[in-house]
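Worked problem 6 (solution included).
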Amino acid sequence: MARTKLRKFNELAERENVIEPDDAQFGQLAGKWREEQFENNNPIVLELGCGRGEYTVGMGRLFPDKNFIGVDIKGSRIWKGSTMAIEEGLYNVAFLRLIIESIGSQFAEGEVDEIWITFPDPRPKDRDIKRRLTSPRFLEIYKRILKPGGLVHLKTDNQCLYEYTLETLLERQAKNLICTADLYTSDLQNHTMGIYTTYEKRYLEEGIPIKYLQFSM
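Solution. The predicted structure is:
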Protein backbone atom coordinates (compact mmCIF):
# COMPACT_ATOMS: atom_id res chain seq x y z
CA MET A 1 0.00 0.00 0.00
CA ALA A 2 2.78 2.45 0.94
CA ARG A 3 4.68 1.69 -2.27
CA THR A 4 1.55 2.23 -4.37
CA LYS A 5 0.86 5.56 -2.68
CA LEU A 6 4.46 6.67 -3.16
CA ARG A 7 4.33 5.70 -6.83
CA LYS A 8 1.19 7.76 -7.35
CA PHE A 9 2.70 10.81 -5.66
CA ASN A 10 5.82 10.49 -7.82
CA GLU A 11 3.65 10.28 -10.92
CA LEU A 12 1.67 13.36 -9.88
CA ALA A 13 4.89 15.34 -9.55
CA GLU A 14 5.64 14.67 -13.23
CA ARG A 15 2.19 15.40 -14.66
CA GLU A 16 1.51 18.58 -16.58
CA ASN A 17 -2.19 18.46 -15.72
CA VAL A 18 -1.55 18.62 -11.95
CA ILE A 19 -0.36 21.71 -10.07
CA GLU A 20 1.04 21.00 -6.58
CA PRO A 21 2.71 23.09 -3.86
CA ASP A 22 6.19 21.93 -4.91
CA ASP A 23 5.70 22.95 -8.55
CA ALA A 24 7.34 26.08 -9.90
CA GLN A 25 3.94 27.18 -11.25
CA PHE A 26 2.16 26.85 -7.91
CA GLY A 27 0.90 30.25 -6.82
CA GLN A 28 2.13 31.84 -10.05
CA LEU A 29 -0.87 31.19 -12.31
CA ALA A 30 -3.35 33.71 -10.91
CA GLY A 31 -4.61 35.65 -13.89
CA LYS A 32 -2.71 33.38 -16.28
CA TRP A 33 -4.47 30.00 -16.13
CA ARG A 34 -5.86 30.27 -19.64
CA GLU A 35 -2.63 31.42 -21.20
CA GLU A 36 -0.09 29.26 -19.39
CA GLN A 37 -1.94 26.09 -18.35
CA PHE A 38 -4.53 25.64 -21.10
CA GLU A 39 -3.08 27.79 -23.90
CA ASN A 40 -6.48 29.11 -24.92
CA ASN A 41 -8.97 31.79 -23.93
CA ASN A 42 -11.86 29.50 -22.96
CA PRO A 43 -14.00 29.86 -19.80
CA ILE A 44 -12.66 28.38 -16.55
CA VAL A 45 -14.82 26.12 -14.38
CA LEU A 46 -13.72 24.95 -10.91
CA GLU A 47 -14.83 21.87 -9.00
CA LEU A 48 -14.04 22.35 -5.31
CA GLY A 49 -13.36 19.23 -3.27
CA CYS A 50 -13.24 17.27 -6.51
CA GLY A 51 -12.25 13.94 -4.94
CA ARG A 52 -11.58 11.47 -7.75
CA GLY A 53 -12.54 14.06 -10.31
CA GLU A 54 -15.67 12.42 -11.70
CA TYR A 55 -17.35 15.79 -12.24
CA THR A 56 -14.25 17.57 -13.48
CA VAL A 57 -13.49 14.87 -16.04
CA GLY A 58 -17.17 14.38 -16.90
CA MET A 59 -17.61 18.06 -17.70
CA GLY A 60 -14.35 18.06 -19.63
CA ARG A 61 -15.75 15.35 -21.90
CA LEU A 62 -19.00 17.22 -22.49
CA PHE A 63 -17.56 20.70 -23.02
CA PRO A 64 -14.27 20.73 -24.95
CA ASP A 65 -14.64 24.50 -25.36
CA LYS A 66 -14.25 25.09 -21.61
CA ASN A 67 -11.36 24.60 -19.17
CA PHE A 68 -11.95 22.57 -15.99
CA ILE A 69 -9.88 22.57 -12.80
CA GLY A 70 -10.54 20.08 -10.01
CA VAL A 71 -9.35 21.23 -6.59
CA ASP A 72 -8.61 18.87 -3.71
CA ILE A 73 -5.92 18.43 -1.07
CA LYS A 74 -5.75 14.63 -1.37
CA GLY A 75 -3.13 13.61 -3.91
CA SER A 76 -4.34 10.01 -4.06
CA ARG A 77 -7.77 11.25 -5.16
CA ILE A 78 -6.39 13.67 -7.73
CA TRP A 79 -4.25 10.89 -9.19
CA LYS A 80 -7.39 9.05 -10.31
CA GLY A 81 -8.93 12.04 -12.06
CA SER A 82 -5.69 13.17 -13.66
CA THR A 83 -5.10 9.63 -14.93
CA MET A 84 -8.52 9.53 -16.57
CA ALA A 85 -7.91 12.92 -18.19
CA ILE A 86 -4.55 11.80 -19.58
CA GLU A 87 -5.88 8.49 -20.87
CA GLU A 88 -8.77 10.26 -22.64
CA GLY A 89 -6.65 13.09 -24.02
CA LEU A 90 -8.62 15.75 -22.15
CA TYR A 91 -6.24 18.69 -22.37
CA ASN A 92 -8.97 21.00 -21.07
CA VAL A 93 -8.83 19.28 -17.65
CA ALA A 94 -6.35 20.05 -14.88
CA PHE A 95 -6.09 19.54 -11.14
CA LEU A 96 -4.89 21.79 -8.34
CA ARG A 97 -3.74 20.25 -5.08
CA LEU A 98 -4.72 22.74 -2.44
CA ILE A 99 -6.81 23.29 0.68
CA ILE A 100 -10.00 25.09 -0.39
CA GLU A 101 -9.42 27.86 2.16
CA SER A 102 -6.51 29.06 0.00
CA ILE A 103 -8.36 29.09 -3.32
CA GLY A 104 -8.54 32.88 -3.38
CA SER A 105 -4.76 33.17 -3.69
CA GLN A 106 -4.64 31.00 -6.82
CA PHE A 107 -6.99 32.97 -9.09
CA ALA A 108 -7.24 36.60 -10.09
CA GLU A 109 -10.34 38.69 -9.59
CA GLY A 110 -13.02 37.65 -12.09
CA GLU A 111 -10.85 34.92 -13.62
CA VAL A 112 -13.28 32.05 -12.94
CA ASP A 113 -16.53 31.63 -14.90
CA GLU A 114 -18.28 28.95 -12.83
CA ILE A 115 -17.85 26.90 -9.64
CA TRP A 116 -19.16 23.44 -8.74
CA ILE A 117 -19.24 22.15 -5.15
CA THR A 118 -20.09 18.46 -5.26
CA PHE A 119 -20.90 16.58 -2.05
CA PRO A 120 -18.64 18.53 0.32
CA ASP A 121 -18.13 17.65 3.96
CA PRO A 122 -21.28 19.16 5.57
CA ARG A 123 -19.39 20.16 8.72
CA PRO A 124 -22.44 19.56 10.95
CA LYS A 125 -20.98 20.90 14.21
CA ASP A 126 -21.67 24.55 15.06
CA ARG A 127 -17.99 25.16 15.72
CA ASP A 128 -17.27 24.21 12.10
CA ILE A 129 -19.78 26.54 10.42
CA LYS A 130 -17.00 28.73 9.04
CA ARG A 131 -15.50 25.67 7.34
CA ARG A 132 -18.65 24.91 5.35
CA LEU A 133 -17.95 25.64 1.70
CA THR A 134 -21.12 27.73 1.46
CA SER A 135 -20.47 29.85 4.55
CA PRO A 136 -20.19 33.66 4.11
CA ARG A 137 -16.42 33.34 4.41
CA PHE A 138 -16.21 31.18 1.30
CA LEU A 139 -18.96 33.02 -0.55
CA GLU A 140 -16.86 36.17 -0.37
CA ILE A 141 -13.91 34.30 -1.91
CA TYR A 142 -16.10 33.01 -4.72
CA LYS A 143 -17.51 36.48 -5.33
CA ARG A 144 -14.00 37.86 -5.85
CA ILE A 145 -12.64 35.21 -8.20
CA LEU A 146 -15.85 34.76 -10.22
CA LYS A 147 -16.71 36.97 -13.15
CA PRO A 148 -19.82 39.14 -12.59
CA GLY A 149 -22.85 36.86 -12.72
CA GLY A 150 -20.71 33.70 -12.56
CA LEU A 151 -22.69 30.74 -11.30
CA VAL A 152 -22.05 28.52 -8.28
CA HIS A 153 -23.61 25.04 -8.09
CA LEU A 154 -23.99 22.84 -5.01
CA LYS A 155 -24.95 19.16 -4.97
CA THR A 156 -25.33 17.49 -1.59
CA ASP A 157 -27.10 14.64 0.13
CA ASN A 158 -27.12 16.53 3.43
CA GLN A 159 -30.41 18.21 4.35
CA CYS A 160 -28.86 20.43 7.02
CA LEU A 161 -26.19 21.78 4.65
CA TYR A 162 -28.85 22.38 2.01
CA GLU A 163 -31.06 24.31 4.43
CA TYR A 164 -28.11 26.26 5.84
CA THR A 165 -26.94 27.22 2.35
CA LEU A 166 -30.40 28.29 1.22
CA GLU A 167 -30.88 30.42 4.33
CA THR A 168 -27.45 32.01 3.90
CA LEU A 169 -28.09 32.81 0.24
CA LEU A 170 -31.49 34.36 0.97
CA GLU A 171 -29.94 36.54 3.67
CA ARG A 172 -27.28 37.71 1.21
CA GLN A 173 -29.83 38.25 -1.56
CA ALA A 174 -28.07 35.92 -3.96
CA LYS A 175 -29.08 36.19 -7.60
CA ASN A 176 -30.23 33.53 -10.10
CA LEU A 177 -31.19 31.28 -7.19
CA ILE A 178 -32.86 28.00 -8.08
CA CYS A 179 -33.04 24.97 -5.82
CA THR A 180 -34.62 21.61 -5.16
CA ALA A 181 -34.53 19.23 -2.21
CA ASP A 182 -34.97 16.24 -4.55
CA LEU A 183 -33.09 16.74 -7.80
CA TYR A 184 -34.14 13.57 -9.59
CA THR A 185 -37.86 14.16 -9.15
CA SER A 186 -37.56 17.80 -10.24
CA ASP A 187 -37.30 19.55 -13.60
CA LEU A 188 -33.73 20.66 -12.79
CA GLN A 189 -32.00 17.40 -13.68
CA ASN A 190 -30.58 18.82 -16.89
CA HIS A 191 -28.66 21.41 -14.85
CA THR A 192 -26.35 18.69 -13.55
CA MET A 193 -25.62 17.15 -16.98
CA GLY A 194 -26.20 13.53 -15.99
CA ILE A 195 -22.84 13.26 -14.21
CA TYR A 196 -22.78 11.17 -11.02
CA THR A 197 -20.02 10.94 -8.43
CA THR A 198 -19.22 7.71 -6.61
CA TYR A 199 -20.82 9.07 -3.43
CA GLU A 200 -23.90 10.22 -5.30
CA LYS A 201 -24.52 6.76 -6.75
CA ARG A 202 -24.25 5.30 -3.25
CA TYR A 203 -26.71 7.82 -1.80
CA LEU A 204 -29.22 7.17 -4.57
CA GLU A 205 -28.99 3.40 -3.99
CA GLU A 206 -29.78 4.09 -0.33
CA GLY A 207 -32.81 6.19 -1.30
CA ILE A 208 -31.33 9.48 -0.12
CA PRO A 209 -32.61 12.48 -2.15
CA ILE A 210 -29.98 14.65 -3.78
CA LYS A 211 -30.27 18.39 -3.13
CA TYR A 212 -29.21 21.00 -5.66
CA LEU A 213 -28.72 24.77 -5.58
CA GLN A 214 -27.59 27.21 -8.26
CA PHE A 215 -26.85 30.86 -7.58
CA SER A 216 -24.67 33.86 -8.35
CA MET A 217 -23.40 36.48 -5.95
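Discussion: The chain has a mean pLDDT of 93.
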